[in-house]
Specification:
The structure holds 2 protein chains of 2 kinds.
Chain A: H1 2-7, H2 26-35, H3 39-65, H4 79-82, H5 90-102, H6 110-128, H7 135-155, H8 171-197, H9 202-217, H10 220-234, H11 243-268, H12 272-280, H13 285-300, H14 302-315, H15 327-335, H16 345-375
Chain B: H1 20-52, H2 83-116, H3 121-135, H4 139-151, E1 161-163, E2 167-170, E3 173-176, E4 178-181, H5 185-213, H6 219-237, E5 242-245, E6 248-250, E7 253-255, E8 258-260, H7 262-289, H8 292-300, H9 305-335, H10 347-359, H11 362-391
Antiparallel strand pairs in B: 1-2, 2-3, 3-8, 4-5, 6-7
Classes of the chains: A mainly alpha, B alpha+beta.
């Protein structure tokens, strides 16, 4: 009996697992694996740390630590007054804030701009959140009704609102007006051009291809010059066409060509079976397009549309070359003010405008990424 | 039996206006007529308006004297030259900034794109941060930033920043030594060209030999040795006929050397860093597009890491990279027209800017300017289509 008991061995408890090698676990292991895994990697890490130290620290120092927060004129931002190294001169931004936001829009009328912004935000936010229902109505309100309401609110001349010339508009207001008009105007035009480019009718197709490739082949600035200097010549002599409107026409035509290519990408992604099924149901061209093809195609290209909106938003800065003062234009104008001429004014102004441009573009690119992930249901991983 | 079969029904007669072919033709003709009518109206209006404003039309102005100076010109230019010459000077300046910008942006873009893929977490994050920051700021903003804020606030010539005592940076521009070619310098150039031709020949021979015998030839090192070595030997044999004219501070400014205008430098830096961010993304997408299985298969075949990269990953990645890369080159060229914002005399600034304001001939000048950019982009896309057709994978 005892012999048997000794011959077999039954483990009664599991042995303790060995501790993992220190190098691959915990925060320390992770750091070693990712940053100091060999000579090359360690060198790269050290170089990276030097780069970060060389850029991040002076930036923080300039924007926050050395910055001047209170003041009323350039004197407050001079090293002689402050008796230390001077960073960003924030009072400059505070003094010019209205100019940056509204241009020379009359101060007592600026509530109209704010109201337009508020309306836009109220309509835009539910449109961007996929879970909120009623997208159709929302889109009609945002793309159809809002531009009309916004136009009358900003221009005035109705319901006792004072008329405000577009010549006094400026700053971020103009940036937003141009990008918004660009997107709202270019979307329908771009869809038509994309459909035309894929059409079976040779004349329609040729005209659309020529239009698209012409605008895509030239820089936006030539288009703006075309709109500013050439367009008035093409219209009957007694037509007066507003400076901002000219630029808007140029931007819409230019953006439509790019939008057409984005939409074409979506149209090409729709399988033939969809067309054939629609045809089998007896739908004609416009019904097939409107009810079957476009709803699917546009959904696919939402990220592309947002991306072209980002480039449009960035490209609005070009209008300063044709003497329309958008945010960047107002910034440049503010630099010329001798009351605020200090060594740090330029950097302060660029830091402020840069933050606005970055926040808007970056936010939109994150949103494009989000929709892309949401629509991409067939991802392998 | 046969009598039961009905003859096939004749298709119902369709009214002419319901025939799809007739309709298609009709709509197209209407569209064409509308376009032509608009074109005719525009031309008519333009004619009336131009006559009313007493602006000449036609391209005769190209032979008129320009009467304004241009602060950078690659060819001889003076104020008495014609507008045609102005056009040429501007075109060359555009090509100059675009050419240098393309080379620099490619190098920087590849470095950042590869850095973004680096296993080193910190480096990848820095590269990612660079791309995000640059891509989300308008290009014109960046051009003005470099020109006004960075280059504009540099110290004057007397306090210039000096790099190795050879290159001087101040608010008047960047001064670099000018190479002076003495007698015999052309032989050095000839040796260089012959070495390049030799390397191409060597490459053909080496690939033939590899196909025949399977032996590889250390092509890269041999070619490098030839291209660097041959001109160097000629240079030393001739007693170094190339000298440098160094920039010197005289009074309030530098004389001698080559002066890069601050406008040129600002535009170039902004175009390079901006396009590099986009090229970095193109490169990253290209490398990621080569599936891991390719690398694993190559390693399983016994290829070393370096060879795997060179023979398996890079050729496949390039196929994905090249078309969008060409697009970025095109964008850079078109974006160089923003030079007008800082006053660098590129095609757009001197021609659609100054010349347009002097002559008022908007139609002709804008048409010429647009045509130039259009031709550049059409040539580029033609080359790209040719390249795409050449490298297409032969599928089953």
């Amino acid at each position: 009996m005892t012999m048997d008991a000794q011959r077999s061995y039954v483990r009664r408890a599991l042995t303790e697992p060995e501790p993992p090698p220190t190098a691959s676990s915990g925060a320390f292991g992770l750091i070693q694996q990712r940053l100091f895994d060999g000579v090359l990697n360690s060198t790269l890490t050290i170089i990276s740390l030097v780069i970060i130290a060389a850029i991040a620290w002076p930036t923080v120092k300039f924007l926050l630590i050395d910055a001047v927060w209170q003041g009323s004129s350039r004197v407050d931002c001079l090293p002689e007054t402050v008796k230390r190294e001077v960073g960003a001169c924030w009072p400059f931004i505070a003094a010019k804030f209205r100019q940056f936001m509204y241009g020379f829009y009359p101060q007592d009328q600026q509530w109209r701009v704010n109201l337009t912004y508020a309306l836009g935000v109220i309509l835009l936010v539910p449109l961007l959140i996929p879970r909120i229902p009623g997208k159709g109505l929302n889109a009609v309100l945002f793309f159809g009704v809002f531009p009309v309401v916004g136009f009358f609110l900003l221009v005035g001349d109705v319901l006792g609102l004072e008329h405000v010339e577009t010549a006094v508009w400026g700053g971020f207001l103009v940036t937003l007006v141009i990008s918004f008009t660009g997107i709202v105007g270019s979307l329908p035009l771009g869809i038509l051009l994309a459909l035309g480019r894929r059409s079976d009718l040779p004349i329609v197709r040729t005209l659309c291809v020529v239009f698209i490739e012409l605008w895509r082949g030239v820089p936006l600035i030539t288009v703006l010059f075309f709109a500013t200097y050439m367009l008035p010549l093409f219209l009957p002599g007694d037509w007066r066409i507003d400076g901002l409107l000219r630029v808007l026409i140029g931007v819409v035509l230019f953006a439509a060509a790019y939008m057409a290519e984005v939409v074409r990408g979506g149209l090409q992604a729709i399988p033939r079976g969809q067309y054939e099924a629609a045809m089998a149901l007896g739908l004609g061209y416009w019904r097939t397009t409107g009810f079957i093809i476009l709803p699917q195609a546009l959904k696919i290209v939402i990220p592309g549309i947002v991306n072209s909106f980002i480039s449009l938003f960035k490209d609005t800065t070009l209008v300063l070359i044709v003497a329309i003062f958008d945010l960047l234009g107002q910034l440049r104008a503010a630099f010329a003010d001798p009351n605020w001429a200090t060594p740090v004014t330029l950097f302060t102004g660029f830091a402020f405008a840069g933050m606005i441009y970055f926040l808007v573009s970056f936010g939109m690119s994150r949103y494009a990424l989000f929709t892309e992930r949401r629509l991409d249901t067939g991802r392998p991983n | 039996m046969a009598s039961d079969l009905q003859p096939p029904p004749t298709p119902p007669r369709v009214a002419l206006y319901n025939n799809p072919k007739v309709r298609a033709l009709f709509y197209q003709l209407v569209l064409l007529a509308a376009v032509l009518w608009f074109g005719y109206e525009f031309a008519l209006n333009a004619k009336v308006n131009l006559e009313a404003q007493k602006i000449a039309s036609g391209f005769d102005f190209l032979d008129n004297t320009a009467g304004f100076g241009i602060n950078q010109s690659l060819i001889a230019y003076s104020e008495t030259d014609t507008y045609g010459r102005v056009f040429l000077v501007g075109l060359l300046n555009t090509l100059l900034v675009a050419g240098i910008g393309i080379v620099l942006a490619t190098i920087l873009g590849f470095v950042i794109g590869i850095a973004r893929l680096s296993p080193n977490w910190l480096l990848a994050r820095i590269a990612g941060g660079y791309v995000e920051l640059i891509r989300n700021l308008p290009l014109l903003f960046q051009i003005l930033f470099w020109y006004l804020a960075v280059l504009g606030t540099l110290p004057g010539p007397r306090q210039s920043l000096s790099i190795f005592g050879e290159i001087f940076v101040n608010n008047r521009g960047i001064f670099v030594p000018r190479p002076i070619f003495g007698a015999g310098a052309e032989y050095v150039l000839a040796a260089f060209l012959i070495a390049i031709l030799g390397s191409i020949g060597l490459r053909i021979w080496a690939s033939r030999r590899q196909n025949r015998t399977g032996e590889r030839f250390p092509l890269l090192w041999t070619a490098l040795a030839m291209i660097i070595g041959a001109p160097l030997i000629v240079l030393l044999a001739l007693g170094v006929p190339i000298g440098f004219e160094h920039p010197q501070l005289r009074g309030f400014n530098f004389v001698g050397g080559v002066r890069l205008l601050p406008e040129f430098a600002g535009l170039l830096i902004a175009l390079t860093t901006y396009t590099a961010a986009f090229i970095a993304e193109v490169v990253r997408a290209g490398v990621l597009a080569v599936s891991r299985g390719q690398t694993e298969a190559a390693l399983a075949l016994g290829l070393r890491r370096g060879l795997t990269l060179r023979l398996v990953v890079v050729p496949q990645a390039l196929r994905v990279i090249v078309p969008p890369l060409t697009n970025q080159y095109l964008n850079l060229t078109k974006n160089s027209s923003l030079a007008v914002a800082v006053g660098y005399p590129d095609l757009f600034a001197v021609f659609a800017g100054t010349t347009l304001h002097q002559t008022g001939q908007a139609v002709e000048i804008i048409a010429i300017t647009m045509a130039v950019y259009l031709v550049i982009s059409l040539i580029t896309s033609a080359l790209m289509n040719w390249y795409n057709a050449r490298i297409r994978v032969a599928e089953r």
